[in-house]
Design brief:
Blueprint (H helix, E strand, L loop, with lengths): L5 E4 L5 E7 L4 E4 L7 H4 L3 H10 L4 E5 L16 H14 L5 E6 L3 H10 L4 E7 L5 H5 L2 H10 L3 H13 L5 H13 L2 H11 L14 E7 L6 H10 L4 E5 L11 H13 L18 E8 L2 H8 L1 H21 L3 E5 L3 E6 L2 H19 L8 E8 L2 E3 L2 E3 L1 H12 L5 E4 H6 L7 E7 L8 E6 L7
Helix pairs in contact: 6-7, 7-8, 12-13, 13-14
């Protein structure tokens, strides 16, 4: 069945088309500088490649801006904007960790992303690629095809298809040339090619900290020495050389490529722990809300892209605390979270760990993150994987009353945690919007040594 096309929206306002296939740990398959995720599925060799990759994992494919089914009128191909595209797709899918596959001209982009987002990339796979674009430009086939790009669009696409797939390929190369013409305009490809051929990521290679596999075919036009140099400069990277001349992993001895990827992604993988189950309906939940103080002002001050990067750090810190303290994420709300706990003690420990993590982060951050946290306990209504009712509304109102760096709780939370060693300061009765009677609030003293 053809995958369902979905859309993610970047911080700079571009719609990016993507699909997913399969289930399990995620593998994000970067596009080339031209792609069309719907038409690629109609090529038998591409479809078999994608289906095989998705047998043991969730495969994610998307189109760059300016091509395929993504926004065609946006053609800024700077590294920063390409990073925003990948961020948008993985954020849309809620992926905290994933493997990343970069091919040929987008191999350098994969290196950039792995070095900038080490907390997100679990494995890096680089196929027939390079660190310095000059290594690719020096290939005679690249020189010849670049000369044609501006002069004869149809002939250029035919030659580019053979460059990528191999000169022995007939019908697949013809189909691929047609795909290029459908995927991107001549003018857009000229812009994208110039941007990709200016990249030099050699200085970033030592900073790549994830497990890395460099795959290269011996008879491919890009010399084997390029692959050796790439692997030698990434700490502990593994180099696997395969037989064949095609730059397309889905042609030639595809099974050898897939086996190398499966072996690499399967090493050291432990079964994921099941997420904590939310308490059953009618049970007492302790509800926790987080909210980033001044998030709107942050966006106006530093811009959408930087603000999104700051909020992503907030998401990672909160989710790690929830995971460590048995919390169930109910929903994320852009600059905040709602979570549920079966234990008031667990919720308080999570809140304290969260604030301490942000305090540590703020010591060296360019943009410190100040988070308000509020807790309440009660018997909310559970419906469609969400929670509703007075207990939830009160927790949200309590969080809104907190200052950045504070944890405020209702009296019921304090009573449930009595004798557990937490320090509470009485903040008195407070009027909360939507509640007739004032509510007595308590501040949780989480700074070590506070009295």
């Amino acid at each position: 069945m053809e995958p369902r096309i979905q859309y993610a929206h970047t911080a700079d306002g571009v719609s990016i088309a993507f699909w997913t296939l399969g289930e399990g740990p995620a593998l994000v398959h970067l596009p080339l500088i031209f792609s069309h995720i719907q038409l690629e599925w109609q090529l038998p060799e591409c479809r078999r490649w994608y289906e095989r990759l998705a047998e043991k994992r969730m495969l994610v494919r998307y189109d760059h801006r300016g091509c395929g089914l993504s926004d065609r009128d946006r053609t800024d191909y700077s590294v920063d904007t390409l990073v925003l595209e990948l961020d948008a797709v993985v954020d849309r899918l809620g992926l905290e960790r994933f493997a990343l596959l970069g091919l040929s001209l987008t191999g350098p982009l994969a290196v950039v992303y792995a070095s900038r987002r080490p907390e997100r990339v679990s494995h890096l796979i680089l196929w027939d690629t390079y660190a310095h674009a000059a290594e690719y430009i020096q290939m005679p086939s690249t020189q010849a095809s670049r000369a044609l790009m501006d002069k004869d669009w149809a002939f250029y696409t035919e030659m580019a298809a053979h460059n990528v797939l191999g000169w022995s390929e007939g019908e697949p190369a013809r189909r691929y040339a047609a795909l290029i013409r459908e995927s991107i305009t001549q003018q857009t490809l000229q812009v994208a090619a110039r941007a990709s051929l200016d990249l030099d990521v050699r200085a970033l290679l030592p900073s790549v900290s994830c497990r890395t596999l460099v795959l290269h075919r011996r008879q491919y036009a890009l010399p084997v020495d390029v692959a050796r140099g790439l692997a030698s400069r990434i700490p502990d990277a593994r180099l696997v050389l395969l037989e064949g001349e095609s730059g397309a992993p889905y042609l030639g001895d595809t099974e050898a490529v897939l086996q190398a990827i499966d072996d690499f992604l399967g090493e050291g993988v432990e079964p994921a722990a099941a997420p904590p189950e939310p308490a059953p309906a009618g049970a007492v939940h302790t509800i926790l809300f987080t909210d980033v103080e001044g998030s709107t002002a942050l966006t106006q001050r530093v811009g959408d892209a930087k603000a999104r990067e700051v909020l992503r750090t907030h998401e990672l810190i909160v989710r790690e605390a929830l995971k460590s303290h048995g919390g169930s994420e109910v929903k994320a709300m852009g600059d905040g979270f709602m979570a549920s706990f079966s234990s008031a003690t667990g919720a308080l420990e999570c809140a304290i760990a969260t604030q301490r993590a942000f305090a540590q982060h703020n010591q060296s951050a360019d943009e410190p993150i100040w988070v308000r946290i509020g807790l309440n306990a009660g018997e909310p209504i559970a419906e469609a994987e969400d929670l509703f009712g007075t207990a939830v509304n009160l927790a949200a109102r309590i969080a809104a009353k907190a200052e950045g760096g504070e944890i405020l709780v209702a009296n019921v939370v304090r009573e449930l945690a009595a004798g557990k060693g937490f320090l509470f300061a009485d903040r008195g009765e407070t009027a909360l919007r939507g509640f007739e009677d004032p509510v007595r609030l308590y501040e949780v003293r989480w700074v070590e040594g506070s009295a």
